[in-house]
Structure formats: C-alpha cells, structure tokens
Amino acid sequence: MLSDPFEDLFPRRVSLGVWVLFGLLVLGAICHRLYLIYGAPLPLNDGGLFWVHTQAIYEGGLRLPAVVPYNGLEIPGSYPPLSFLLAASIAWVTGVDTLEIVRYLPFALHVGFIALLAPLMRAYGVAWSGVLLALVVLILTQRSYEWLIMGGGLTRSAGAMAAMAAMAAAVFTAWAMSGPRAGWAWAGGASLGLAILSHLEWGLTAVLLCVMVVATRAPRWSVALRGCTMGAVAALLVLSPWLWWLSQNTGFAPLGDAMATSQHSTAQYYRALRAHLFPTFLTYFAIVGGYECLRRRAFLWPLLPFLILALTPRHFETAVTIPNSVLAAVGFAALWRVAVPLLGDISGRLRPRARWTSEDFRRPAVFLVPMGFAAGMTIFGTVSDWKSDALEPMRAGDYQAMLWARDNLPPGAAIVALNPDHWAADEVSEWLPAIADLQSLGTVQGREWLPGGAFHTATNLSGQLKANSNCPELDAFLSLEFPEAEYLFVSADLGERVFDCLPGAQVFADQGTRIWQLKQ
Amino acid sequence: MILPSRENRLAELFPEQTQIGQWVALVGVVALALGFRLFYFQSDVMPILDGGMFHEFIAAIAENDMRLPPSAVYNHTELPFAYPPLAFWVGAALHQYLGLDIVQVLRVYPFAVHLIYVVMIIPFLRGFGFPMTGALLAFAVMILIYQSFEWLIMGGGLTRATGAAFAISAGTACAWAMRRDSLALAVLAGVLAGLGMLTHLLWGILGIMFCVAACLSLGDRWGHRLRVLAIGVVIVLAMTVPWFLWVIGHHGMEPFQNAQSGSMRGTHQFYRTARAQLFPSFLTYFCIIGAWECFRRRVFVWPLLIIAIIAIIPRNYFNVSVVPNAVLATVGAAAVWQWLTEAVGDIKWRGFTPSWVFVISDWRRFWVPMVLCAGWTFFGSFSDINPRIMSSLSDENLDAFEWVNENLEEGANILVIAPEEWFSDEVSEWMPVLTEAKSLTTIQSTEWLPDDYFPRHIGKVGHLKRSLGCPQFVDRIAEDWPEAQYVYATLHVHCHLEDPRLIQLYETDEVWIFQIDLYYGAD
C-alpha cells in the first residue's frame, strides 16, 4: 500500500457510530433496489433480448448459439457471452427459471461492483473512513444502479458483471503495482478479459482503469511494462476462446455494427461537459474534490471522468459514478477539514469557557457529520434526478396482454407496440417479442448487431411512432411505415387514448391495455 | 492614507505587477468582447428586443416639461408612473435638449452606459485589495460573460445598465472609503447607491449589497463599519424617500405590491438556480474552485454575495450575479494556474527538458491564464447565447406595423402570436408604440396592474399559444379573447385554410394578419 495523499482529510480510525450509519444507509439503499425489482412482473425495463439469448444457451446445453432468434430477426450471437453463460449455468445447476435469474442476478452482481470500490481505494492507501464515505456516495447515486439492476443489467445487463470485473481488474493491478507480485498482475489481466467478455464498453472502461492504475501507481517503468505484459497475456488467454469462436461462427462484422452506435461525437462531449459531468448537487463537491486531488497530485480520480467520457460516451453516466463518488467524498472531507477549525474558532469566541476546540471536530466519532451531510446531499440529488421511466415496473395489464397474445395470436404475427417512453426505457417493446413470440415492428433492441445502419433506422422509426399524437396521424403512419402490421398493442401507460379511427377491431382489453386486430 | 486594514488573503494568487503581455492580451479581449456585442446591433433603426414601454415613459416626461407625470399611457392602458424615474429623465433630457430621437436613445445609450459598469470592476476590485493583475483578469472574464451585456445593451437596458453602473460605482466608492477612511468617499457611495435605487430597484439593491459587503469585509473596527453604513443609509433615504412619498401620494403602495408579485421569490426558483444555473456555463468549474479557495482563506464575501443575491434578487439573479461570478472564476483560474505552473515546472525539471528555464515563478506570466480564461469564458458565452432575446424588430414587422396603421381602425384589438416567450417577444412590446392598435397579448407593463393581473395574463397568453391547432385556436379566442378583432402572427397559423372564422388580410414570409369573425355563419 502506498502513501495516502488524503491522510489529512480522513480520520485513521472509524468510530462505531460511523459504521452504524454506514450500515443503515447501505441497508436502506439495498431495500429500495429490492423493492423496485420485487414489485415488477418481469425484470425491470429491458432484458428481453438477453433472456432469449440466455434461454438459447440453456436449451443448447450451455453452448453458444451462432444466431439468436428475437423479434423475427436473426441476431448474430456476437454479444460478449460471459453473463449469459453464467445465468444459463446457474439455471442448469440449480433448476431455477432463467427469467428469475435475469431478474435477480444483475442486482447481485451490481452489489459486488459497488463493494469492490473499497479494495480499490484501500489499494490507494485511503483510510477506511474515506472508503466508507465514498461507498455511501456511490451506493446512493442513482446512476450506480439505475441501468445495472434492470433486466438489461445482466450484461449492460452484463454491465453489472463487467463493472465488477473491471473494478476487480483495477484492484488486482493496483496490488500488483505496489510490489513485485506477479500473481496479482495475472489476476488483473484475467479480470480484464472477463470484463471484455461480459460487456464491450465496460471492458474498455476496465482497460482504462488498469492503464491509469499502472500509470499512477507503478514505482518504475520496468515494473509497469512487466505488469502490463503479464496482464495483456492473461486477458488474451481469457478472450482467445471467444475470439476463435467468433471467427468461426459470426465473424467480426457485427461487432463493427455495434460499435457504430457508440455515440462518439463532439456534441455528446459538449453536452456532458456542459451539464452532466457530475450528478446534480454533487457537482459542487466533486469539483472541489477534483481540485483537492490536483493540489495533492493525485491525478487518477479527476482525470478518470474525462477519459471515460472520451472513451465510452454512451455509458459514460453509469461508469463515471466510480470516480465521481471518490471525488465527491474528497470534496466533502475537504470541506469538513476547513470547516473544523472555523467552527472551533467560532465556538471558542461564543463560548470561551466551554473548551470546545477544533480538535473536538477531528475526532473519528464526529466524522458522522460529513458522512450524514454527504448522504443527505446525495439522496437529495438522486431524488432531483429521478426519472421513473427506466425503473418503472411493467404494468400488470401489459404483462397479462403479452401472456394472452402468446396463447391466442399466431406465432410471429406482426404487431406494433405503442408506449410513450423513449425506446431505451420502453419495456413493452423489449419484452413483447420475448414473451409473446410476436414480431414487434417498432422494437429497437437487437438491431445494433445488424448491418446497414439498422439501429439508427429503428430508433428514428420508434421516435416517429411515439410522436403520433392522434388517431388519424397514427393511421397514416402505420399505413406508410408498417403496412404489414396485423395487430396494435396499446400499453396501459397511454391511458384512455382513443384509437377508434383505425380499421379493425379491439380483441383484448384488460387493466388499461388494449390489443387491436388491424384490417389489411 | 490607506488604512492597514485586513490584507486581501487572495492577493497571493496574483502577481504584484502587470507585464506588457497582459495588457496586450487585454486589448485583444476587449476587441473580441466589443465585436461580440456589436454583432447584435444589426438593425440600424430599432433597439435590440425591448424598450417600447420605456419609450412611452420618456415621451411622457418630455411632454410634461421634464416633470414627472403621475401616470403614462402604454398599450391604451394608463399606468401608474411608479417605476424609478432617473433613467427616463436622462433619456428625456437627451431627447429634449440634444434633439435625439427617443428610439435612437434607447438603441445607443444602454450600450454606452453598460461599458461603464463593466470597466468599473477594475477600481471596484482594487478597492477590495486585489492586485492590478487580478483586477484585469476579472475584467477580462466579466466583459466576456454573456450575462454581462445580454439584458443591458437592449432597449430595456436603459434602466438596467444605468442601475448596474450606479451599483458597482457605489460599491467601489464604499470600498475605497473603507480603505482610506474617507468621509467624502462614504458620502459619494451613499449618493451613488441612492441614484441606483432611483434608477432600478433591483440593481439599486445590488449597489447597497456591494456597499454592505465592502463595509463588513474591509472594515477593521465595528465603529468604523457602522459609521460608514450609517452615512450611506441616511443619504440613500434622503434621496429616495421624496420619490417614494410622491408615488405613494399619487397611487398608494399598490403599484409596488403589484410589481412585487413578479419577483419570482420562491423555493422552487432557489432550487432551480442551485441545481443548474448558479454559475455561467463552463465557468462553473472555475467558480466552484474560486469559491473553495475563498472559503479556505476565510474570504467569505464573494461566495456569500452569490447566496445573498439568490435570496434577495431571484428574478434578476443571473444578471446581477455577474460581478461575484467573475471574481470567483478569476480566483479559481488563478489558483489553478498557480498549481499548474508548479506542477509543470516540476515535471520539466525532473527529466523531460531540464535545459528549459521553466520554474515555478513563471506563473507570473499572467497573460497565459488571461488568454486561457478569456477563451474559456467566450466559449461558455457562445454556448449560452439566446438568439431570440438578442434580436431587433425586423424590417418585415416594421412594414406590417405600417400596414396596420394604414388599414386598421385606431385602437383595434390585436392578438400577437409569436413563437418567443413574452419577455423576448419584441413584436408585442413595440406594437403599442409604433401602431395605433391595442395589443391584447402584450405582457409588459401589466406587472403594475392590480389583482394578480400579471401572472394571470401570462397564463392566459401561454394557453393561447399552446392552442394553435384547428379549430381549437379560434375556439380558444372565442372563449378567452372575445374582444379580439385581429390576429398578428409571426409563426405559421394555417387555421384560415380550415376555419372560415379567420380571414387572411396580409401575408409576407414572416408576418400574417387575420381578421377574426367569431360569428361567421350565425344567423
């Protein structure tokens, strides 16, 4: 373990009160997540495609499928497969339904992702009080779980798994750099390979974390070079079976198609730098923390947000929670460090006989104050940022309608799902093909792996579909863009909107969800 | 004599002496800033955006032999003349004695006066003990911040820019009064603060806040502070009470109470500001670092000013906070520069290019952070530009106004439908001045009317603008605006193609005028 640049900010000892507050906050955060997951009939938001992929592996005897049938499409099985294999293996060993695994496994893995921040910070010599403060900020930040605990959290859904592997890789690399420990370098490289094998963007984040750890922690260039070499070899060894399988089955073109959706653009960087670099209200503390890091020449943490943004702009907001929580923790502690002598002076002037000095504020037990303040501020910011679309459970009526459609409509029938949410938060379009075995014409998911700009075409069409504000507009749109549509699925989220101008008849209605059979 | 008052704990961040490079960089910054502003003076006829109501106020004073009239007529409505009158007097004097056209006064005068406000930050900060290098850096930041001119150089800037100039001048005089223990400067500060209050209430309050900040942070004895504050309070009261009594004598307290309803003071406004708009875009990083450096050094005046401004002047927060924001950004940039030169100097010495003579003391080359800071601020300002606010009445609208005067009856009731928000809608503002018609949807001036007319009117106009589909547009007019006779639209309202109750009278690429016949087809 190397010297701690923040040793004057965090008390070396942790009082029982701080542990108790930490435990309560973690318990509250975990219960909130479980409440969200448990209350939904299906995994939260997305994951339909991933469930189909997992099911295909499970039914194929744990072998990877070259093609995944989803939504009437043949999606190349090029998605990094580790999390699907893990979910299918658990189902194979335990007999638990794969759907339930897709529902709960992301949550379990994301807990590991959050917990691994502790050894990473410890490897940087940060005292336990600082580690607990950063963990509190991380676990209470909405982005640390929003896209990780949902069905799609199995791999972005693999995101949780991959994030965990990325963090593990960074931890192992940090330990390897702090001494001639070849074993840790091999473990770091292997974890890096597992991260890439779970989710490409998190894999890139893992590469970035490892490179930055080596750059900031290696005592000599020779150690860095040796560690990097061992890590790269280990990563390649882990990845080579999958790369060989890709070359034999799907080729590498689908990976190129998926990369085209990465949102690398000046506009994206500009937008993030302008308003979204840090979570709302944590901005103040994260910037102070970044500046304090620079003053102490601890460059890793303030550089990471910019590098993550440059490397993986699409999932930037989730990945950046790692350095942001550290920066905010440093900011809170620095504020407390300056406030302590100030409060001591004020109390000394107001109550000279009370013998209440700035040293009293430094006691480990009083560290409860900045921790409580940080927790309150983070919760306030999370509540302010709350967007319920993505974490809103599927309506019971929608789920019942999917089950009815599975039993009553011809398999593969063409259907258009109407739901007001943005395509990424539209759980109906994602799960309809998976549950009801229909072809959902407006579903975007899966098309990022198809050639010819299929993803951008689908997102544009999805946007246009949702923009139709009345029945005649919708009728004209369906005739023009989806003339093959046989059914229309109207989500309960749309309320009582009337579509009686459409040619056809309503064949299902329950709890606000309606299905129309359209006349051709 | 300069008193040995508290030293400026921020001074160590700035070199003591300026160098030629910093002055050269400053010339470039000023040229850029002036070019940025002059770009918006594209109309050689009309002022930018607003000023229509102020035009009528100036005309009313001029027609009343330079005496303050109890009321003025705007948009066929008699308004209590409760607005602080000083800038209108100045405008009327320029019109009356120099023969300048009032529209041209509104076009040129705000721009000229706002320059005083911007330049005054140099003596203002010198009064607070900043070295010249720091004061120049703050000036470079301030002159490039978009909000330092956005609402000041337009027609309505007549009062705002004058008020801003008085506010910072009052703060400057007070700061120097504290440093030099000068009675004359304390009196001057009081006079300038009083003039600020007589020009624009909110900017006048800012001037008082500057004076209080100077007294509290620069005084070294409570007796000294209280003496200067007492002098200022007496002078401000002596200057403003007669005018207040005059207004109360004619109209009672009601106009002030009505205007207060538009102050936007509320938890929601504070929350929204703290959430996203506390600092200008992209300067946020430096402002927060600057605030942090102030806090570390126990220089509380600048961060506290920001919070005090949100609490006291929430409606104008974004514009009146420019001065403390510029100071915070300057302190932040200087702190980063000092750290950076040290870090870079170390790196160079440690092995990259040891032959280069680059040492920590090179941070004195202050033109470098000035150029970087200016570029960064300009980038942020460019990002913040709202072209709908910084526009003048177009020639097409002026032609249409002429057509209205020639073809519609005097006092005709017109609904103006423009895509802009009411405060950036120059057509609604100027129509009552340049035509004989009455614009039913003009919001300006209604803040002085009773019974919460201002917020209700905003809601009613917004409702109409959200009902542009057919036939709900004309239905909405029939329900909410039965007295309306014409629609003047600067956005596409195609209802006349489907709804026979609208008859198109006038059409260009930019303006459409319709006659409304709500009883079409009725027996």
TrEMBL record, chain A:
Record bears the keyword Membrane: yes
The organism's place on the tree of life at top rank: Bacteria
Coiled coil: none
Sequence intervals crossing the membrane: 16-38, 101-120, 126-145, 157-178, 184-211, 223-245, 273-291, 298-316, 322-344, 365-383
Alphabetically ordered keywords of this record: Membrane, Transmembrane, Transmembrane helix
Signal peptide interval: none
Name this protein carries in UniProt: Glycosyltransferase RgtA/B/C/D-like domain-containing protein
UniProtKB/TrEMBL annotation, chain B:
Chain segments annotated as transmembrane: 20-40, 105-122, 128-146, 158-178, 184-216, 228-248, 274-292, 299-318, 366-385
Source superkingdom: Bacteria
Keywords of the record: Membrane, Transmembrane, Transmembrane helix
Protein name as catalogued: Glycosyltransferase RgtA/B/C/D-like domain-containing protein
Species whose genome carries this gene: Candidatus Rhodobacter oscarellae
